[in-house]
Design a protein that fits this description.
alpha/beta; Udp-n-acetylmuramoylalanyl-d-glutamate--2,6- Diaminopimelate Ligase, Chain: A, domain 1; five-stranded mixed sheet; 5 helices; 5 strands
């Protein structure tokens, strides 16, 4: 799914475009960057409500070209400049994470699928 299609599906706003014209092929939503690091894949859309520098660094380390911030959160100009410098696209959604994910799924964006259930210690 292209960046403009993602934005349209969630009635969102594009703040920055990724450095390359990318077709995002799946999405993952979390506010824990450790969860994102575990499941990250190249060409994956990161959906989060965290608007801090660690979010940009996590996307960079994981080759995730686009971040979609939810709950109407607008990142600072510093964060936007950081994303532009690295080449990461930034989108905004006015919906909650739950509703944003539902809208994207309805528009044809797949997620990670069924994951194994693991015991936490």
């Amino acid at each position: 799914m292209k960046v403009n299609e993602i934005a349209k599906a969630v009635d969102g706003e594009i703040l920055t475009l990724p450095a390359i014209d990318v077709d995002v092929d799946r999405a993952f939503a979390a506010d824990l960057m450790s969860d994102i690091l575990v499941f990250a894949q190249p060409k994956m859309l990161m959906i989060t409500g965290l608007t801090n520098p660690q979010t940009i660094r996590t996307a960079e380390m994981s080759d995730m070209p686009v971040i979609l911030f939810v709950r109407g959160k607008r990142p600072s100009e510093t964060l936007i400049a950081m994303a532009e410098e690295i080449g990461i696209g930034i989108l905004l959604s006015p919906y909650t994470m739950y509703e944003t994910c539902g809208l994207l799924y309805q528009a044809g964006m797949p997620g990670m699928g069924k994951l194994p259930i693991v015991q936490q210690s």
